[in-house]
Amino acid sequence: MEAPARDPIGEILARLDRRHARACAASADLLEVVRELDEADTWSEDDESSLSCFLASRLGLRSAAATELVRISRKLRDLPAIGAAHRAGHISWDQLRPLTKYATPETDEQLAVEAPEMTVPQLYREAARHEKDRRRRARSDRQTRYLHMSWDEDGRNLNVEGSLPAEQGAAFENAVRKRAQKMVVEEDVIDRAGARMADALTELACSSGGTEAAPTLVVHADAAVLAGQAEPDAQHLAETESGIQLSSEAVRRMACDARIEWVLEADGRPVGLGRQGRFVRGQLARAVRHRDGGMCAVPGCERKDWLAVHHVDHWADGGRTDIDNLVTLCSSHHRRMHEGGWRASGTPGRDLRFHDPGGRVLARAPTAAGVAA
């Protein structure tokens, strides 16, 4: 019986296919290790500025090649079918690069089947088409961005509604959520998480972190408001120039930490014009913050951002604007002092004490589990 004829070309091609499959499997393993490094953040111990810089240095890669490794490893987290096809050798590295530019979790399985039959130029053309569509949608999103603000009929609440394109929306969401994690809210608030977000947005929009003067606001107020002699159920005792009504507690808090131009009235007639609240800044503000360790003075709070300087004895009641009558509070605790029934006694830096609405001395900050969402 004759031996079958050898097919040397066929053997070489079979070896080529096996080697290519091994190369793809090794590539998939490398991408998995890169993803693990990315998630563990261990590369930062070598003082590199980014993971791609670390890979370029350690593996001797071009910066562009290292950047591609990181990009593709991150994309494959959400593309398991395409990742498996690459590992099996059905999708090459050169096919994987353009494919991961436009594949999505929704198209993952379909493209894992279709991509092996497409050439690299075809995949790049498809990636370019998707990029063109993405840019057109992004341009449309930018053109339709908006922010609407309107007051309800009785002027008590401002309603805010808007739409932001992806890049602005991501930055906005990150800033508000990050700030909201540090906010303190009242125990009886209905939507605790929503209240924290609202306070965070207001703080970001209106505060300057102590680096600039607080915003100037012109307020028309009954003199009894600042004197603390207003009746609890009195109406229309204070309003801004635009007619927005303010509670007496909010007015006294604003007088403590914002630059206000007051028009004080009695019996409907102006009795004082242009008087300004005592906004604490400069050397005195720095001295107060240094004494209080650069953080909120309420026991256990320790917030270091967006601090206000609070008059222990209220400015409107004749309290002095000097270091022995001033204490640093975060905006949330400052609001509690003026609108939540909390109060302080003693001298800042020595024997200052904080009291809850029932008069109990605060042993720890009201940021414990009781205020967690």
Task: Report on the architecture of this protein.
- The chain is α+β, with helices and mostly antiparallel strands.
- The model is unreliable at 209-215, 232-236, 270-278 and 364-373 (pLDDT under 50).
- The strands form 4 sheets. A 4-stranded mixed sheet has the order 4-3-5-6.
- Helix 2 (51-59) packs across helix 3 and helix 5 runs parallel beside helix 7.
- The protein is built from 13 helices and 10 strands.
- The protein has 3 domains: 8-141, no CATH class; 215-278, no CATH class; 282-371, no CATH class.
- It is elongated.
- The chain has helices at 8-40, 51-59, 63-75, 80-87, 93-99, 108-114, 120-143, 166-180, 192-206, 223-226, 248-257, 282-291, 331-339; strands spanning 146-151, 158-163, 216-222, 238-240, 259-266, 269-276, 307-311, 326-330, 343-345, 353-355.
- A hairpin with a 6-residue loop joins strand 1 and strand 2.
- The chain is 44% helix and 14% strand.
The poorly predicted ranges are: 209-215, 232-236, 270-278, 364-373
Strand order of the largest sheet: 4-3-5-6
Helicity range of the residues? 40-55%
Q: What is the helix/strand order?
A: HHHHHHHEEHHEHEHEEHEEHEE
Based on CA inertia axes, which overall geometry fits? elongated
**Main β sheet profile:** 4 strands, mixed
Mean pLDDT: 76
List the total number of helices.
13
| Beta content | 5-15%
Can you tell me the number of structural domains? 3
**C-alpha-based Rg, rounded:** 32 Å
Question: What's the end-to-end separation, in Å?
Answer: 84 Å
Structural class, please? alpha+beta
- The number of E-state strands comes to 10
